[in-house]
Amino acid sequence: MQITNETSTWLLQAKDILDEARRLKPGPERKELRQTAKALREIAKLEAASESAPERDWRPKT
């Protein structure tokens, strides 16, 4: 995983968790860490999409 200056905190946490999971033997704890990292990557993806989306005015038009 290449990390740039603008890498999300979520992605950095996911990387740390995956590094920890790789040190474990296969089993439930390792699987849980991998699932947590997957969720963090999804959060980072959603965050990036919301930051790149244009600002919208959600107030009702009158």
Chart the SSEs and their pairings.
Elements: H1 9-23, H2 28-52
Question: Care to describe what's here?
Answer:
- With about 60 residues, the protein is mainly alpha-helical.
- It has a domain at about 10-50.
- It has helices spanning about 10-25, 30-50.
- α1 (about 10-25) runs antiparallel to α2 (about 30-50).
- The chain is elongated, with a radius of gyration of 17 Å.
- The N and C termini lie far apart (about 50 Å).
Distance between the termini: 49 Å
Question: Per the principal axes of the C-alpha atoms, what is the gross shape?
Answer: elongated
Strand content: under 5%
Instruction: Count up the helices.
Output: 2
- List unreliable stretches of 5+ residues: none
Question: What structural class do you assign from the helix and strand content?
Answer: mainly alpha
- How would you state the average pLDDT, rounded? 86
Number of strand segments: 0
What is the N-to-C succession of helices and strands? HH
Query: Helix share of residues?
Result: 55-70%
Please give the radius of gyration in angstroms.
17 Å
Largest sheet: none
Quick structural overview:
The chain is an all-alpha fold.
What are the defining features of this structure?
single chain, 62 residues, mainly alpha
